[in-house]
């Protein structure tokens, strides 16, 4: 086992990221170290590890202020790091399809703003920028050498990009000896990733740092906090890849959903005679109305019509201009012809937030028989997917088909996980049936995709369990 060292610092963070001594039980670190030595001609001084995650329930509601229930997974991002002799950031990746990159630490913001598809190094630079925004004035940042190696499937809904941003934040902070609590690092990382252009919530970064082996987490916001959720012993969660990929930073789909939720919150506030300008999230309007989630569903149905809204209609109801709305709503500009499905999106959010609460209650209720508990959890997951498909419209034909196949193979419930528009599904399966389930689903996926490029079946379908969050390894 690795030995834990003193993770405390002059900043006195109450719950710092563990700092462990690397040993021979971590073969990937040795391979990464060799790549670093080959590229930079010196040894790294430490490593950071940040896991991916699978969200069990609570999709597209973190940026609305509501709790979610993810768990950290085994797949991760590893970074080997050393402080450089100048002020340059030099990056290399073990995977050959990702090109090496370097720039001055002074030019990080400009490099992020460069047009084109979000290249891998931009996510790292977002982490650098986020860290520098915090340590500026406290430390004189120096350049770093960094070798990256990740085994989280890219664009799969398992949070590879957020893990990379978070690992970069942790790398810069540790290199600068500016240690902070896990909650603080998660908050910084969530803010940092928005530099890539997506207006995400904080779930991915929170579980990346707060993840705990053996437990899922209920992640709540404002303030950020995590509560252990002990899952039933007789259940296993299985991840399956639809073979449809989607980069949420490459399209406007994700940000449109964020905008629709923000606009829905303001419209509900206006119709209920509340100050809409101070309302940013759907949870804000719920709190001001002092209503339950069920009551919010009724309010949405009565106050928002089913037909899509135009921006002119929204501005007329709010008695404002589009320019003022953009300034006060943190809504990124959209084409004038863009329409917004406010009723559908807000219905999903309030109902999904209610499902998260029910998911927690079922797990904690000792009076529910184990088999019945699994059935109830599976039912909540399946209802979540139906809502994401019908109300939030963020699924994909391949994802829907994979959910159906998972159910036909014996899952008690299945749903897309992550942003959607492709990526992975997560299924709940009885432990005594998981081997048969995994084998059957793998064979089914391979049969259905015979014309696809060959993919390792073990990477297409695999069972998972809650793993530990971020770690620093010293040599």
Describe the secondary structure blueprint for this structure.
Elements: E1 4-5, E2 19-21, H1 27-40, E3 46-57, E4 69-83, E5 88-93, E6 101-104, H2 108-113, H3 120-135, E7 144-150, H4 160-175, H5 182-193, H6 203-210, E8 216-220, E9 225-229, E10 235-241, H7 253-271, H8 282-289, H9 293-303, E11 309-310, H10 311-318, H11 322-329, E12 339-340, H12 342-364, H13 370-390, H14 397-408, E13 413-416, E14 424-430, H15 434-448, H16 457-460, E15 461-464, E16 471-474
Parallel strand pairs: 2-16, 5-7
Antiparallel strand pairs: 1-2, 3-4, 3-16, 4-7, 5-6, 8-9, 10-14, 10-15, 11-12, 13-14
Q: Helical stretch count?
A: 16
Helix coverage percent? 40-55%
- CATH architecture classification name of the domain at 4-229 and 467-474: 2-Layer Sandwich
Give the C-level CATH assignment of the domain at 4-229 and 467-474.
Alpha Beta
Spatially, the strands of the biggest sheet line up as: 1-2-16-3-4-7-5-6
Largest sheet: 8 strands, mixed
Structural category is alpha+beta
- Count of individual beta strands: 16
Look up the CATH topology of the domain at 4-229 and 467-474: Ribosomal Protein S5, domain 2
Average pLDDT, rounded to a whole number, is 92
In percent terms, what proportion of residues is strand? 15-25%
What gross morphology would you assign? globular
Alpha-carbon Rg, integer: 22 Å
Termini separation comes to 14 Å
Show unreliable segments.
1-12
